Amino acid sequence: MSRGEFLTGDGDGVWRFSPLLPVFPRMISLGEGNTPLLHVERLGSLIGVPYLYIKDESLNPTGSFKARGMAVAVSRLLDLGARDVCMASAGNAGLSLSAYCAFAGIRCAIYIPSDSPLGVAEECRAYGADVVEVIGILPDAARRMEEESESGMRFAVNTFREPCRVEGKKTMAFEIERQSGGKTPDWILFPTGGGTGIVALWKAYSELAELGWLDARPPRLAAVQSTGCAPVVKAFETGSEEVIPWDDPDTIASGIRVPSSRADSLILRALRESGGTAVAVSDDSILDAVREVSLHAGVFPSPEGAATWAGLKHLVESGEIDGSSRIVMVITAGGSRYRFLDEIYSGRMRG
Question: Is the entire prediction scored with pTM above 0.90?
């Protein structure tokens, strides 16, 4: 594949970029990838950012960017002959794994913490997954999964337990480059929990730079977390090389309610090598962001997706991001599974 083919060649979706991915004997797909890059001028005008774009990952199968990683991960599982897999998940990752395993004919067990959004367990079961609901938060579900999988009969597909989810998710960067005609953005903001998104983006741009396919420097990356669970932000601000697990994580943004990550050093390296940053935003600002992105961009984001807008407002106001920059916010999932937000927001406004 040449740079010209990369930017203008035929084909859509994750597997269009197969020359830049590991080799797979079988490449399964539910139509993931090829999500729009939207120039959201009305939204950007609220804070004086004329070149603001949304990468809307909510249009992936099962409604989130997790589909990219699962398409590639489950393809590898087929290659390895795995017939029984498991994962601990608070929502979107478990939903995606359940759907792709249903498509591939692989048995799947999802361990879900009790604080997961309503409907997640039921949808996983609809795909045929065995669902184990665990009292507590995501680490509690992960511990239960480890205890029940000690025999090694099930293949664990949790974050950073295998490389293929990162390989699938790095196609977000490839699409951003293609959709922008090779005009590399100055900044990409990404909501960060387990960190595969940040690591995948930096891996992708590092590979493109090595190939000589970038006309400008790689983008700076900004990790956005909630003030109720901000272990990456704290480590970044203190100059630490590792993340200390966050005690009592508490945020409405369940996708980033992750107290620690296996790849903490990789996340921090990506932020620092890119010249990026990390920012934490409050749940109130996340709720405001859900409303503003919906109203001014026509995209209904999940709380973690909306956090990127809350984070951008803070970073522009503080001067850390120049308003004239080309900026991409990744909306990792849609808000359709978070209908409780309307009740919370209305109640907060009434109060």
Answer: yes
